[in-house]
Structures are given as structure tokens and as C-alpha cells.
User: Which sequence fits this backbone?
């Protein structure tokens, strides 16, 4: 029953996010600018995906530049998968929808973890994704900030549990969550 409830809540946030982002979905073309500068063609997508497996890249200096983290593998894998199923033109919009849904759902989970009533927990997620900062970052195209904001409530749960239970696995899980977000 709990899994069904969680699934329905996730669908609820997917619907709310779809309504909020409807004008963006109906606009023509791909989202570009800011850190939305994703690869657009199949060759660019393949090259970005391959490059995410290396600690050094060919951009930025004569001998290449150090890539700061390996977490781009996760992000590039999503883009690669969406391109394989033919959604090359829409993947930034789909990713934006998923980031909003993640943020709302994870805030709901944090509110439930803090033992707030169901309606307050649902509203917490909706209010979180309707704050001006979310839309400002959409306009600027800063998806990585949106990803960090989406993972923040989950990381907060992990941090609280790590401290309360003195649990190393929760501390590590929180660090991994934020590594993906950063």
C-alpha cells in the first residue's frame, strides 16, 4: 500500500510539474544557454557520453582540462538513453520536468519524514517547486542548481538519519546524493 501511495504522489507531482512547465513544453526547439548547453546532435551526444568516462577532457587548454567530477556519467547517460529512444529534440524539456517532479516529491518525503500531515506534506512539495528561485533558474538554464535543489530534501533526510542513528551508510548515501547534485 505504501508503494502505491508513493507512486500516486509521484504522479501527482509529475502532473503539477507538467502544468507549471506547459508553456515551455509547447515552445518550439530545444532549450539552450546557461548550463543547458547540452549536445544536440547524435555525434555530440556520443562524444559527451564517451568523455564523461575520463578525468581529462580536450576543452579548455592546449593539453586538455581536468574534469572535476565523475558524476557527469549519470547525467550524460540520461541524455544518451533519451537519444537512443528518439527523444533527442525533447530531452532537455523532459529533464526539466523530471527535475521539478524530483524536487516536489523529495520535499514531500522530507515533510512526511518530519511527521507532518498528508495535506501539509503535499502542499510543501507544491510550494517548493513554485518558489521564484525554481523559475529563475529555469530562465537562466541552470539545471545543475535545479538538480541540487531536487536532491536537497533527500540529502536532508539522509543527514538527519546519519546524525540521529550515528550511521555511516546514511552519511555516505547523503554524500553520494550531493555528489550527483553538484
Assistant:
Amino acid at each position: 500500500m505504501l508503494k502505491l501511495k508513493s507512486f500516486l504522489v509521484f504522479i501527482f507531482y509529475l502532473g503539477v510539474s507538467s502544468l507549471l512547465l506547459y508553456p515551455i513544453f509547447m515552445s518550439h526547439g530545444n532549450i539552450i544557454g546557461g548550463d543547458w548547453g547540452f549536445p544536440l546532435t547524435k555525434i555530440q551526444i556520443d562524444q559527451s557520453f564517451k568523455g564523461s568516462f575520463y578525468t581529462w577532457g580536450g576543452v579548455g587548454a592546449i593539453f586538455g582540462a581536468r574534469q572535476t567530477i565523475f558524476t557527469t556519467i549519470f547525467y550524460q547517460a540520461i541524455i544518451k538513453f533519451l537519444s537512443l529512444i528518439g527523444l533527442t529534440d525533447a530531452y532537455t524539456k523532459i529533464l526539466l520536468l523530471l527535475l521539478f517532479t524530483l524536487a516536489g516529491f523529495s520535499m514531500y518525503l522530507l515533510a512526511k519524514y518530519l511527521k507532518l500531515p498528508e495535506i501539509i506534506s503535499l502542499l510543501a512539495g507544491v510550494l517548493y517547486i513554485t518558489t521564484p528561485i525554481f523559475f529563475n533558474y529555469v530562465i537562466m538554464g541552470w539545471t545543475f542548481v535545479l538538480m541540487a535543489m531536487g536532491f536537497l530534501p533527500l540529502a536532508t533526510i539522509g543527514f538527519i538519519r546519519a546524525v540521529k542513528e550515528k550511521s555511516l551508510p546514511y552519511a555516505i548515501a547523503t554524500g553520494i546524493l550531493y555528489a550527483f547534485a553538484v
Summary: The radius of gyration is 18 Å. The mean pLDDT is 82. Strands lie at 56-57, 65-66. The first helix runs from residue 2 to 20.
